[in-house]
Design goal:
By secondary structure, the protein is an alpha+beta fold. The chain contains 14 helices and twelve strands. The strands form three sheets. It has a seven-stranded antiparallel beta sheet, with helices on both faces.
């Protein structure tokens, strides 16, 4: 389906061009669906800081934690078939997971960052070893919770993907990469634009990222991060020593279901468009209508020990609504669910408005919740549709 040139499409394109002119973005895609119909499909800018080719609708962007929402959707599709139950302990499906005090952690707790398994290994070499899938699952199996599971929440920035993937693999015998391809991407007609671990043959369509320039000593001293103790859970979950270069083929080809999904905006918007439309889009059903409120019910909204602020978390997603009195890119409704990624990508479903929005970017912005350029884009679309209250 091709979006015709509408006033909304034009306004979104104009905003993207303005962001690029202001230097806050290099290349962007935006896609949105409402009530199962594509209403925005725009791309602008170039594919990378050193790649002047224009962004195309099928350009695929490394989208960091926006990947978590796709991984969660794969798990929920299997739960909808009765293969996984949210309130059952993970160890029912994955026996080895139950070691070291994890035997009672439920699927819902594990998928809403309540398991206390957020920490990455203490060395670069050990982190790089986890690019191997089997090594990563063993790391989760042998992990010891940092708190009694279910009593606190802390963002599992990288480990979340191995937890989700391990649950899926041990409950069904299927790799999460295959479930995403076979249950989401292929049915929805986006098989060439949704990957967690890229295959050979798509290299020419990869956008490259512009990471933030290193701060000067003065800027670093003024940064809020300078006030965080070095042994804080934030640095355990997202250590500077990880050594993952997300532009490298080694990282792009690994399966990191929390952090290295490669998507087009239209692929993400189409998946969430189905979830915002009762589980189906253009006659293609990926999940039952009754499952939507179950998968998006808020599980916890207390202060996050990693992110240091209260976050509304459902089973694998972050929910909308104001946080600490501030608007977020997810919008005003707590029934909205999806996930943003480090640097500024975001994708979500807003079932009350029948709306999905996805933004993919390649100039990283400092933030974890779709702040900056993505927030501007999502606000524009909601304002123009009259659904921003």
């Amino acid at each position: 389906m091709t979006t015709t040139e509408t006033a909304l499409n034009t306004k979104v394109r104009d905003l993207l061009l303005d962001q690029i002119a202001r230097g806050v973005q290099i290349g962007t895609q935006v896609c949105a669906y409402q009530n199962g119909e594509e209403i925005v499909n725009v791309c602008a800018g170039q594919m990378g800081p050193e790649d002047s080719r224009p962004v195309q609708p099928d350009t695929i962007f490394s989208s960091f934690s926006t990947t978590k929402g796709v991984a969660a959707t794969a798990l929920h599709i299997l739960a909808d078939r009765g293969l996984i139950e949210y309130e059952q302990p993970v160890s029912k499906y994955w026996k080895e997971f139950g070691a070291n005090g994890k035997e009672r952690v439920t699927v819902a707790q594990a998928m809403s960052h309540q398991g206390g398994l957020h920490a990455m290994p203490p060395t670069t070499e050990a982190c790089l070893d986890l690019l191997n899938w089997d090594n990563a699952l063993r790391y989760i199996e042998t992990g010891t919770p940092a708190w009694e599971p279910g009593t606190a929440t802390g963002y599992h920035a990288v480990t979340y993907g191995w937890i989700a993937g391990g649950i899926i693999q041990h409950a069904t015998g299927r790799h999460i990469r295959d479930v995403i391809a076979e249950e989401i991407a292929t049915p929805l007609g986006i098989a060439g634009e949704m990957f967690v671990g890229i295959p050979d043959g798509v290299e020419d369509r990869l956008a490259s990222l512009k990471t933030q320039d290193p701060p000067s000593a003065e800027e670093a001293a003024r940064s809020p991060f300078a006030q965080i103790p070095k042994d804080h859970d934030f640095f355990k979950a997202m250590p500077a020593h990880m050594g993952y270069n997300f532009n490298s083929m080694e990282v792009r080809k690994a399966c990191l279901p929390a952090a290295n999904g490669h998507f087009s905006a239209r692929a993400l918007a189409r998946m969430y468009g189905a979830l915002a439309n009762g589980g189906e889009i253009e006659g293609i059903r990926i999940i039952s209508k009754e499952r939507i409120p179950l998968m998006s019910t808020i599980q916890v909204e207390t202060p996050d020990r990693v992110l240091m602020m209260p976050m509304r978390k459902s089973i694998g997603y972050f929910n909308g609504g104001n946080i600490m009195g501030m608007k977020t890119a997810n919008g005003p409704r707590t029934t909205t669910f999806g996930h943003a990624g480090a640097g500024g990508s975001i994708a979500f479903a807003d079932p009350e408005a029948g709306l999905s929005i996805a933004v993919t970017i390649n100039r990283m912005f400092s933030g974890l919740q779709g702040e900056g350029p993505a927030f501007e884009i999502c606000e524009l679309i909601r304002d123009e549709l009259g659904v921003n209250a």
